Amino acid sequence: MITDLSSGQADPQRIGEIVQAEWGIENKIHYVRDVTFGEDASRIRTGHGPQNMATLRSVAMNFLRTMGRSIADARRQLAIAPHTAPLNLFGIPCDLHTHP
Asked: What is the DSSP string of 48-89?
């Protein structure tokens, strides 16, 4: 591991803490983006597209986390009612029929 810590600060315990924290980020964010949203397979590569899609994925992850115990659980809930569940998530009434 490359670090800017001095030799006195870079003891094995401290290096282990840093590595563990990095893997926490990897597992919480990057893994979800790669597996759930297929970010690595995305063909969006030019201009601001990659940054915009990363932002949209982050927003989606945050909303999905508010829906259930996990992102996988939230995706299952959405799969049951794909046309109304996203509207419910944003507080948009699903019954859009107009009454005379």
From this structure: THHHHHHHHHHHHHHHHHHHSSSHHHHHHHHHHSTTTHHHHH
